[in-house]
Every structure is written in C-alpha cells, then in structure tokens.
Specification:
With about 290 residues, this protein is of the alpha/beta class. It has 9 helices and 10 strands. Strand 4, helix 2 and strand 5 form a beta-alpha-beta unit. The longest helix has 22 residues.
Amino acid sequence: MTLIGGARGASPCLAIDVGASKFDAAIVAPDGSFTRRGRMEVSQHSDGLFEALVSLVRDVAQGASVEVIGVGCAGPMTRGGETVSPLNIPSWREFPLRSSLRDATGVDVYIDGDARALALAEGVFGGARDTTSYLSMVVSTGVGGGIVLNGELLDGNTGNAGHVGHLNVVRDGALCSCGAYGCLEAEVSGRAIQERTGKPAEEADHATRLRAAQLVGRAVGTLSSVLDFRHCFIAGSVALGFGDEFFSEANKAARSVAMLSYSHDVEIRRSSLGADGPLLGAALVGWRGST
C-alpha cells in the first residue's frame, strides 16, 4: 500500500511511545531505521512525569536535526491529542500533551492513539504492506486497535476510531476501565486475566488461553463482516505469548461468525513489526500530521 502520511522523502522524526509502564523515544529515519533511542520507567517518576518525559526527549534529540515529533499515546484523547487521558496514567486526565511538548521543545508535535499508530506502521513497515483494508490489534496489558480501509486510517468524529477493546463480548461480564461491563479488554487483556485468575497472563492455563483466543476471534470476525476487510494483524504480549494455539483458535472463532461471502476467509496473523512497532507508528503519526 502507499505510505500513509508520506514517510518517503521526509526528514527524521523524533518518535515517542507513551505506554502504561514506560515511555520510549527515538530518532526515526524515513526508512524505519533508528539513530538514537532512550527509555524511562513511569513508576520511577510518579511526580513530575511530564518533566521526566521532556528530559528523555532532550537526551534523545541531542545533536539531531528534528523538525517534527510524533507521539503514540494510550487514549482516550481529544482530536489530535490536544488533551490526553490514558486510562493507565491517572495523573494525566485531559492533560494538554501536544501544546506542552510543543512549548517545551519548540518543535511541531502530532499525537494519535498508540494502537492506531501501530496500524500505520503495519501498513508501511509490516505485514499489511500489500493490503489496503485491515484491522490492526494489540492484545497486551490492554486491548486496542486501528482500522485501515482503502488505504486510509479511519479517524471518526473525535479521532478515536479503532478502540476495539471496547467491543462488548460478554453479557454482564467483567467491569472495564471505561465503565461498561463485558468489554473485550475487560475479558482478555493481561490485566483482566490476572484479576480473574490471580496469576499473570503468561501463567494462564489452557482454558483461559482458549477463552481469550475465542473472544478475540469472534470480535474480529464480526468486524470483518461489518467493515469488509480480510486481514487482521495482532501484536501484544498476551496474544504473542499464547503462541500458535491462540492464532489457530482465534481464526476458527472468527470464521465461525464471519459467514458472509466476502468475510468468511478472514485471516488473523501475527504482527510482523516486533518491538520497534510502537516507535515506527509514532514516527508515522508525525509524518502523517506534517504533510
């Protein structure tokens, strides 16, 4: 597919991935290579979190010529990340991240959801390079996603389109951080699995792993019929950690509900981006915004 947002010919981007437990930053070249990289742990900066982020950014940017900053951040957020309210960072509620970063660095800043950023990266650097319509998902501590149709990332009214973790999959299920009961995130995320079983997701038993795969698969299959895509790419420690059986069961479950002629062959695959995916996505957010 074409480069969403136009990385080709762009200048290097300072990319930032705002995660629940860590912040990563790197200088990313248009070909996807990194020249400098840094990380900070959120737990070590409960006070002055933004100031610590600025320090990280300055360390990574030192000596580099940077014209744009791209950020992938957990949501929800207002359009363009003018304010962000990551559910896993309680100290940031309607936090003016974009203007704060711009004022601190003097550089143009563009922000989008972290899972939406990953969808951009999947289409430019990952397994969806030859696909114009697909779903990109993360099944990890939380569950998120981004939807690309006809080569365009769907934004929605407020720029939050793609929050597949809030598909309701279990009637009267577990309480989700969004306030609803039975959301996919509340049933299959790493946090949800630990709350239900008392053990971290990597120690989940066979039944728990099977249930997670089936719920994810049914959600993907339903969306494939609604949105008319054939491929879903999944990243994240839970899905990847559960291994081949997760993807086999998820595909079976998806096809059990995707019964229309155009969706029945829906295929769920591993993301091919690896650990660099979130930063590549953040860079693409920057390039997409600046063009």
